[in-house]
Amino acid sequence: MHVKSASNDYPIHPHLKERWSPRAFDNRFIEPEKIRSLFEAARWSPSAGNIQPWYFILGLKGTETFENITKTLDEFNLLWAPRVPMLFITVASKVNSNGDYNHTALYDLGQSIAHLTFQAMEEGLYVHQMSGFYPEIAKTLFDIPENYEPVTVVAVGYMGRADTLHPRMAKGEVKPRERRKASESVFSGKFNMPSSIF
Ligand SMILES: Cc1cc2nc3c(=O)[nH]c(=O)nc-3n(C[C@H](O)[C@H](O)[C@H](O)COP(=O)(O)O)c2cc1C
């Protein structure tokens, strides 16, 4: 099994250092209590006005929901994601209770997945998020109502062996994680002016 660590410039929590997005997952099932903890972590994420615009359609391998989620995947993700033990679709509620557009719905949904991902590391699980899927197919298959938007498909499981992957994915599985420097993202004064803290 391949473990990728962040080559961080400054100290970070071990779960953030060791987290990465594998495509090779073990076919071992995930204990239900761990699954509950993942969504509990998502549940306690903050959101604008405490609207909690996040919804999830959970598919465990072997169920019809899981099969239907695989039908939403694009050609690339179909090469690996159907082998994971758990997939779920994230859905954002786009309007608040007054019917007004909630412009932070995607932000809040993403943050709930960040919390879930951190909890996954605590449980010894890995998470791989995907935008490569067809939301329209998801809307039809799962009767997702108007004003609700399927945003990503998320794979969760125990890490597996890279040599079980389709050849197209083999290199990426062992490639070091890369990021631009924090000084290229954190500005002060004007956009693009690096903060003196770095
Ligand atoms: C919103 C989102 C969409 C992504 N979509 C895909 C995808 O469709 N297929 C895939 O294999 N990886 C996908 N990824 C994984 C990213 O490629 C990966 O997170 C990025 O390369 C950084 O690697 P790391 O997570 O291992 O640090 C996605 C990640 C995010 C957050």
Q: In words, what does this structure look like?
A:
The chain has 198 residues and is an alpha+beta fold. The chain has a single domain, classed as 3-Layer(aba) Sandwich (NADH Oxidase). It contains six helices and four strands; from the N terminus they run ααβαβαβαβα. The chain has helices at residues 14-18, 32-43, 64-70, 105-122, 135-141, 167-174, and strands spanning 54-60, 86-93, 126-130, 148-157. The radius of gyration is 18 Å and the shape is globular. The two termini are 35 Å apart. Flavin mononucleotide binds next to β3.
What is the overall number of helices? 6
Can you summarize the main beta sheet? 4 strands, antiparallel
Helix content: 25-40%
**Distance between the terminal alpha carbons, to the nearest Å?**
35 Å
CATH architecture: 3-Layer(aba) Sandwich
Classification by helices and strands: alpha+beta
Number of domains: 1
Quick gist of this model?
With 198 residues, this protein is α+β, with helices and mostly antiparallel strands.
List the helices and strands and how they pair.
Layout: H1 14-18, H2 32-43, E1 54-60, H3 64-70, E2 86-93, H4 105-122, E3 126-130, H5 135-141, E4 148-157, H6 167-174
Antiparallel strand pairs: 1-2, 2-4, 3-4
Bound molecules: flavin mononucleotide.
Which key terms come to mind for this protein?
198 residues, alpha+beta, NADH Oxidase, 6 helices, 15% strand, globular, binds flavin mononucleotide
